[in-house]
């Protein structure tokens, strides 16, 4: 657990939104710089490219774009560094990365939510199984 | 070492119930043993029942013996669908697999016996099954797709063709729920060309007495003269044949038969082969008339194979005049019987699956086959779109454009009406195979995708719909006799052809998609039918 303790350094809070924004950009740069290492240690060359991973990271950051409270941003950044550290320490393994960042959060099951709008419960159940 | 204790129950069964003299006692004293004389097989369609009556297990079921233990099995009390009799059976399953089929006692239908086809066809449930919805690609090969895509394509094609070019055919093994769903779906699409295999063109669905075994199966025991018209009960309905055999043994009833040469296991006079003989009897010129007139309870059994003939109406009117001559239909006795061939037939006629036009197949652009494997597809236009919904990759799959996998009788809850008008229900013994769905659910789902949503979502909903059309189908395990027996049909002007009757069933062991997929049934037909 040594690496957890090492990484769990809480930096001082950001004073302003601008400072928090700067820290976010630093985090993004750090994450992007570690992508080649991640690809190498987790052997991801055949499933994903560097640019795909980079856009995944940016989209994960953009998901929180609406947040303006610097305290919340600091907390999210802390979690982001923690995640990055876990990946670099190989506390997370190859299948974690593939499941979470390559295939996506929906997993292998395709998203039919848009198609399924307006159909009855019977048909929804019918598509999933014979027993309902 | 044999376990046989020489109780000779099997010998008695063979000679008294099955009516074959194949089993007997060889040797005497300590050398006594049961056997068939001189390396012969026991050639009876009821031979499997000796397994049940053997008290020590000396006679065992070859496919089942030593495959499973009794306590591992789950028994499901259900109904047989390989013929129109609806024998009561118990399906013993272990996990996902049907391990054996054994009879249940029902004195009114199958007593305590079942035919070999019923007993041994179950290995067909494991072979040639359809797992996934499939679409035939431009290269002629099937490709697995999701239910979503398959239904979308079927609905799209169905909406493009003209309503009168939509045709639906229910198969031999269809249950009442799926047939009413199919009829409702096609009616909502604007077509009324829906029928069930084996009923022929313009079936008589108006008077139930015109297609049921009116004396009832157990009621046949009261008869003292039988006239079998174009039916070979031994291969069409072995349990009915066992009843006739019992009656012949007990009452010395006389049996006359009109049809192609065939085997009987009781004394039977072959009167002729075609409608000509029938006409002679109707006009009182035939020697058999005296027996018919002297009989107290004469029974005429007409085979459903005649429904497929072109001169069916005139044959039936001749049969009716024989019935009048012999006083066969009386308030206390109705001896004019029709012996159906398939499990779905009676229910389909009760539900009114009667096609609007006689030759709808020739003009069909969208053909929906619900387990129908014996439809003549030669005249189908080559650009017609064929949907096959069923559980086995059987004959019709060769022509199908889309395959929708359905569940077999051992996997679903369904209502079947047998040839005497008794409705019975199957219960699921094993889960469905692969991505298959119950028949009525597929049609219900398709109707919604096509934009003509059917108003029922569950079995009780579909059954309340059936109760509007044919309430007798819901009175389970109760025989609903036909009420009106008088002949209301106008006189038929059709000309009687001289063509002799043909046999309705070529191969007793292989009559539907399940039995055709069965290895045991194939072995039976190879070793038993070639000997004849």
From TrEMBL, chain A:
Location relative to the cell: Mitochondrion inner membrane
Listed InterPro entries: Complex1_LYR_NDUFA6_LYRM6, NADH_Ub_cplx-1_asu_su-6
Membrane topology designation: Peripheral membrane protein
Superkingdom assignment: Eukaryota
Keyword Oxidoreductase applies: no
GO cellular component, one term: mitochondrial inner membrane
Family: Belongs to the complex I LYR family.
Name the record gives this protein: NADH dehydrogenase [ubiquinone] 1 alpha subcomplex subunit 6
Organism of this sequence: Stephania yunnanensis
TrEMBL record, chain B:
EC id: 7.1.1.2
GO BP terms: ATP synthesis coupled electron transport
PROSITE patterns, sorted: 4FE4S_MOW_BIS_MGD (PS51669), COMPLEX1_75K_3 (PS00643)
Location of the protein in the cell: Mitochondrion inner membrane
Domain (4Fe-4S Mo/W bis-MGD-type) ranges: 73-129
GO molecular function, one term: oxidoreductase activity, acting on NAD(P)H
Source superkingdom: Eukaryota
PANTHER family in alphabetical order: NADH-UBIQUINONE OXIDOREDUCTASE 75 KDA SUBUNIT, MITOCHONDRIAL, RESPIRATORY NITRATE REDUCTASE
Stated name of the protein: NADH:ubiquinone reductase (H(+)-translocating)
Species, as recorded: Stephania yunnanensis
Organism phylogeny: Eukaryota, Viridiplantae, Streptophyta, Embryophyta, Tracheophyta
């Amino acid at each position: 657990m040594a690496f957890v303790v090492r990484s769990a350094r809480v930096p001082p809070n950001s004073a302003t939104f601008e400072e928090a924004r700067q820290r976010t950009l630093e985090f993004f740069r750090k994450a992007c710089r570690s992508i080649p290492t991640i690809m190498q240690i987790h052997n991801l060359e055949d499933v994903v490219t560097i640019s795909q991973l980079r856009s995944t990271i940016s989209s994960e950051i953009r998901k929180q774009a609406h947040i303006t409270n610097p305290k919340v941003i600091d907390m999210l950044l802390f979690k982001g560094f923690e995640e990055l550290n876990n990946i670099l320490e190989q506390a997370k393994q190859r299948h974690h990365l593939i499941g979470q960042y390559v295939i996506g959060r929906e997993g292998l099951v395709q998203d039919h939510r848009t198609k399924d709008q307006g159909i009855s419960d019977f048909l929804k159940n019918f598509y999933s199984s014979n027993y309902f | 070492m044999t376990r046989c204790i020489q109780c000779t129950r099997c010998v008695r069964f063979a000679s008294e119930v099955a009516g074959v003299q194949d089993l007997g006692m060889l040797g005497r004293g300590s050398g006594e043993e049961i056997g068939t004389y001189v390396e012969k097989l026991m050639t009876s369609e009821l031979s499997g029942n000796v397994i049940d009556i053997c008290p020590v297990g000396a006679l065992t079921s070859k496919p089942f013996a030593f495959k499973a233990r009794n306590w591992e099995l789950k028994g499901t009390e259900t109904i047989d669908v390989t013929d129109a009799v609806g024998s009561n059976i118990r399906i013993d399953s272990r996990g996902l697999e049907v391990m054996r089929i054994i009879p249940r006692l029902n004195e009114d239908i199958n007593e305590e016996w079942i035919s070999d086809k019923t007993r041994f066809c179950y290995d067909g449930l494991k072979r040639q099954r359809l797992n996934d919805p499939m679409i035939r690609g431009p290269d002629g090969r099937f490709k697995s797709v999701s239910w979503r895509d398959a239904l979308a394509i079927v609905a799209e094609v169905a909406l493009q063709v003209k309503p009168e070019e939509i045709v639906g055919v229910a198969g031999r093994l269809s249950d009442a729920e799926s047939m009413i769903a199919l009829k409702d779906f096609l009616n909502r699409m604007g077509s009324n060309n829906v029928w069930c295999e084996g009923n022929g063109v313009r079936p008589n669905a108006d008077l139930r007495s015109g297609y049921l075994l009116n004396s009832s199966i157990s009621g046949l025991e009261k008869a003292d003269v039988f006239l079998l018209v174009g039916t070979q009960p031994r291969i069409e309905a072995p349990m009915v044949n066992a009843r006739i055999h019992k009656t012949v043994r007990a009452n010395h009833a006389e049996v006359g038969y009109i049809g192609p040469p065939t085997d009987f296991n009781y004394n039977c006079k072959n009167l002729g082969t075609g409608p000509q003989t029938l006409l002679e009897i109707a006009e009182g010129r035939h020697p058999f008339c005296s027996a018919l007139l002297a009989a107290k309870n004469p029974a005429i059994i007409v085979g459903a194979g005649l429904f497929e003939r072109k001169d069916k109406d005139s044959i039936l009117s001749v049969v009716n005049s024989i019935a009048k001559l012999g006083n066969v239909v009386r308030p206390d006795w109705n001896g004019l019987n029709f012996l159906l061939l398939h499990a779905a037939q009676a229910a389909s006629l009760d539900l009114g699956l009667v096609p609007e036009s006689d030759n709808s197949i020739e003009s069909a652009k969208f053909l929906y086959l619900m387990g129908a494997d014996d439809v003549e597809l030669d005249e189908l236009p080559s650009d017609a779109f064929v949907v096959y919904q069923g559980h086995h990759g059987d004959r019709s799959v060769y022509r199908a454009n889309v395959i929708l996998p359905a569940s077999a009788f051992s996997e679903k809850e369904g209502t079947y009406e047998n040839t005497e008008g008794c409705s019975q229900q199957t219960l699921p013994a094993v889960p469905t195979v692969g991505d298959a769905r119950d028949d009525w659910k597929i049609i219900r789902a398709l109707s919604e995708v096509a934009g003509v949503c059917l108003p029922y979502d569950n079995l009780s909903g579909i059954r309340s719909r059936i109760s509007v059309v044919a309430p007798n189908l819901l009175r389970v395990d109760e025989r609903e006799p036909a009420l009106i027996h008088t002949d209301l049909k106008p006189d038929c002007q059709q000309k009687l052809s001289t063509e002799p009757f043909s046999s309705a069933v070529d191969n007793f062991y292989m009559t539907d998609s399940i039995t055709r997929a069965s290895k045991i049934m194939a072995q039976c037909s190879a070793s038993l039918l070639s000997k004849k």
